[in-house]
Amino acid sequence: MVRIALIGAGQRGGDVYSDFISRHGEETVLTAVAEPDEVRRRIVAERHKLQPDQVFDDWRLLLEQEKMADAVIIATNDDMHFCVVEKALEKGYHVLVEKPMSNREDEIGKMEQLADAHPDQIFAVSHVLRYTPFFRTIKEVLDRGEIGELISIAHNENVGYYHMAHSYVRGNWRDGRKTSPIILAKSCHDIDILLYLTGSHCRRVSSFGSLKHFQREKMPEGAAQRCLDCTFQEECPYSAVKIYSDNIEDWPANVITREHTKEGIRKALRETDYGKCVYQLDNNVADHQVTILEFENGVCATFHLSGFTHSISRTIKLMGSRGEIRGDMEKNQVEVYHFATGAVRTIDTSAAKEGHVGHGGGDEGLMEEFVQSLERAVFGTEKEQMTSSARISAESHKVAFAAERARVEGVVVQLKSGPAEDQFRLPGRDICSV
Ligand SMILES: NC(=O)c1ccc[n+]([C@@H]2O[C@H](COP(=O)([O-])OP(=O)(O)OC[C@H]3O[C@@H](n4cnc5c(N)ncnc54)[C@H](O)[C@@H]3O)[C@@H](O)[C@H]2O)c1
Question: Are 178 and 286 in contact (CB under 8 A)?
Fold first, then answer.
């Protein structure tokens, strides 16, 4: 049985990883937790029957002890990942860290160096999309050559209007200077999946987008500062009263208060930023961003990130020389069109598994591979890195930072692995290298 310590027992740590470990008691056990929030810490400690000397209120305290587990899962906020990873690897732990690996570009390079310095330890990133039956199916269809040569991809991340308001206007990721630009925070996953599907490296990237809607000048005249006091409650799609009043036990309502009652929600709407008008906050991350990527193998992709969509989903179209793949992740459906015969094949990719099916089954798939890799590393002789190793994942972060630079500076960014930069100078646009 492999032993895991959990650092950060918030939504991901507490709801996803601790839950997985408690459902897989034959293969894995949680042997320590570090979490400053008393309630979250207690929930995990009780669920895993931890003794007081296995429970800490800060990651440093846990990592100061003699090794307490084979691996640590790091699910703290983005800006803390690097220091925790560095210390954990130094202590000899195998590591699974949440994405983004870091919100600082310089730390991504340092993480690559850490991976190289600790080749015998698993060092992986929670890029859960790589583990979904949906994207794995698409990759298999591509690799079988069913649509011929891959020419281009149109990928959409439909953030969902209420998710946009919750996380990127009112919530943790609203200030790109303190956390990350949205293309990194929300979409390093998507860039990673484009790298996975093309099987190539990104050569050039350009990007456009802005914070177009969620700002003061778009506020209806006379709107109140808090949705509870606002006369536009009925007609405003972003009214916090609407977003948080249903399904109070579930996301996103369960994030804004620990008191999962109507009164608890009202109190949070009265006292926290989650109850404020979306047009009167200090948010600064883009609410839509369109990125164009060119890969070394000549495949081109557009990636459209939008906060203005009805549902939370990913939709993708892959265009090949002999056919087309269309996928809708929310519907768990992949359609393969064959030009020569006119045949259409529909594949249902529902994650036919019990338990937590977050991220289309990706959370479960990631943890299954993590535990299996740990078993091999701890009890066997194999020291294989995971599908979402830090080394592989770092590239998507570098491309995300490059896309953000392209958006902010209005340039086409040439990534180092590509050909000579002046070959690609476009009229009227600058090129900078990263
Ligand atoms: N893989 C994915 O698809 C996915 C999805 C959502 C979030 N995330 C990432 O997961 C991470 C956690 O996100 P979340 O939504 O769970 O946030 P969260 O705020 O719910 O959880 C973070 C936890 O870290 C704890 N923490 C803070 N300081 C600490 C310290 N000194 N020692 C130990 N713990 C400490 C906080 O108290 C909190 O409970 C973030 O990096 C986020 O970007 C990944």
Answer: no
What's the pTM? 0.92
pLDDT per residue as tens digits for the range 356-397:
567 888 999 999 999 999 999 999 877 789 999 999 999 999
Amino acid at 38: E
Question: What is the domain range of residue 320?
Answer: 130-215+283-355+395-433
Q: Nearest C-alpha to atom 6 of ligand 1 is from which residue? A: 12
User: Which has more pLDDT, 384 or 229?
Assistant: 229
CATH number reported for the structural domain that contains residue 135 in this entry? 3.30.360.10
Residue to substitute in 77, 81, 190, 397 for testing ligand 1 pocket (most ligand atoms within 8 angstroms of CB): 77
Strand pairing class (323-328; 313-320) = antiparallel
Q: How far apart are CA 73 and CA 233, in angstroms?
A: 41
- Ligand 1 within 6 A of CB of 182: no
- Whether residue 291 is found in the same domain as residue 269: no
Q: Where are the alpha helices (DSSP H) in 91-230?
A: 105-117, 133-143, 161-163, 182-185, 188-198
Residue of minimum CA distance from atom 19 in ligand 1: 10
